[in-house]
Specification:
- The relative contact order is 0.11.
- Helix content is 9%, strand content 39%.
- It is mostly beta strands.
- A hairpin with a 2-residue loop joins strand 21 and strand 22.
- It has two domains: 35-269, no CATH class; 272-410, Sandwich (Immunoglobulin-like).
- The strands form six sheets. Strands 3, 5, 8, 11, 12 and 15 form a six-stranded antiparallel beta sheet that branches. Strands 16, 18, 20, 21, 22 and 24 form a six-stranded antiparallel beta sheet that branches. A five-stranded mixed beta sheet has the order 4-10-9-7-13, with no helix packed on it.
């Protein structure tokens, strides 16, 4: 059968157009498969494939309205950056970190910082409610998503000089607040150069969070498994701690070489108590309420105690004397476990207060001083009883306790 030249040319042009169209569609599908997912996109496979933990709802979006100590309301990035994602079946052709969305064990690898109660069978999750006195384990997962088939002696496919660090963790949180635990992983030849993620500790009462020194170790199937991580490097010194598989700072592509850093945080109880009492001078009979006469000198005693399990730093005490009372200069003495004999203090107690130092759990301090009832008939008329309230207080970073004692003054 003969075909004229015009028909042949048209058919050839049609084939070319069809080929170009097929290539464009294929490229679009391929690119869509690995498109950069925004912070509001949802990946339905995460919940289906995640075997170890619930899907990370907090990943969408990745801006939090709560600050690191819960005291402010401002947007801060809790994970990032937005990046090209890969699947378990189709890996990257270059080094990239924690960017597989359907890891059979981890689910969405962007969710790589997780926490659980230590020494338990609980799943690692994004947040926990702190229980005073308990320890919690933080897990930071790392995985070079480069195709393991590309691993060779050149090391081009390896994540090189790979490091991990943890942002400083707030020391104290109170009711309704949460502390962020943000982990960062970086390497000199990965795209992107750094990834980060966040887990949370919440509380219903004032607590202190304390990193358990010497608790950080690397866990994987290589020669580095079980090695201790330097505490200071973990929290950013030297640019972070090196991680790897058989060699520090070098991580081949593939799940075989993935691993995690696990460290512990202790939740300490923040608690303190304070009271103030008064006695007739020299009688050592302290009460919350006492009778007095104008011109009389009274002995006051303030008692502070750390009732929690964590150290309280920079405790401040003060006394706001009621009208008709004046302090006797040079009589303020503080008694502590380190100075049971007592040390003389300035009279700042009655002005702006003064710092009585740091106190471990169970430690206390006693402050004594003398106060005189003013002999003023206008304030204390004859035949009348006037009640004076004396206000004293102790303050730490999470709160203040105030205590009132009453002096009933009567002039006969």
């Amino acid at each position: 059968m003969s075909v004229d030249k015009k028909t042949s040319k048209k058919f050839f042009l049609f084939i070319i157009i069809l080929a170009i169209g097929s290539y464009a569609v294929g490229s679009y599908v391929a690119k869509s498969k690995y498109k950069k997912v925004s912070n509001t996109d949802e990946i339905s496979t995460v919940a289906e494939t995640n075997k170890n933990t619930d899907a990370k709802d907090a990943k969408e979006p990745h801006e939090s309205e709560t600050s690191n100590n819960g005291s402010e309301s401002k947007k801060i990035e809790t994970w990032g950056p937005d990046r090209i994602l890969y699947s378990w079946d189709v890996r990257a052709d270059h080094p990239t970190l924690n960017s597989i969305y359907n890891d059979p064990a981890m689910g969405d690898e962007r969710n790589f910082v997780r926490i659980r109660k230590a020494n338990s069978d609980e799943k690692f999750t994004d947040n926990v409610m702190a229980e005073p006195g308990e320890e919690y384990e933080v897990q930071i997962f790392f995985h070079n998503n480069a195709d393991p088939l590309l691993n060779d002696d050149t090391g081009k496919n390896f994540a090189q000089k790979i490091r991990l660090s943890v942002d400083s963790i707030v020391g104290n949180i109170t009711n309704g607040q949460s502390a962020q635990i943000t982990g960062r992983i970086s390497a000199e030849n990965t795209t992107p150069a750094e990834v980060w993620d966040t887990a949370y500790i919440q509380t219903k009462r004032p607590v202190a969070l304390r990193y358990v020194r010497g608790s950080a170790r690397i866990h994987n199937g290589g020669k580095l498994n079980g090695q201790l991580i330097d505490d200071e490097a973990l929290f950013g010194k030297y640019g972070g701690t090196f991680i790897g598989y058989n060699q520090w700072g070098l991580l081949p592509g593939g799940e075989k070489y993935s691993g995690s850093i696990i460290f512990k945080i202790k939740v300490d109880v923040v608690g303190f108590d304070m009271n103030n009492s008064v006695s007739k001078e020299g009688e050592n009979d302290y009460k919350s309420n006492i009778d007095a006469i104008p011109g009389e000198t009274l002995d006051f005693k303030m008692h502070f105690k750390n009732t929690g399990t964590t150290i309280l730093k920079d405790v401040v005490v003060y006394d706001l004397l009621g009208e008709g009372l004046e302090f006797v200069p040079g009589t303020t003495i503080i008694y502590t476990p380190s100075h049971p004999e007592g040390t003389l203090q300035t009279d700042a107690l009655f002005k702006n207060g003064f710092n009585i130092g740091d106190y471990k759990g169970g430690m206390d301090a006693i402050i004594t001083y003398k106060v005189k009832v003013v002999d003023d008939e206008k304030l204390f008329p004859r035949g009348e009883t006037v009640v004076i309230e004396n206000n004293s207080a102790a303050a730490i970073y999470v709160g203040t306790i105030q205590y009132k004692s009453k002096i009933s003054v009567r002039r006969e």
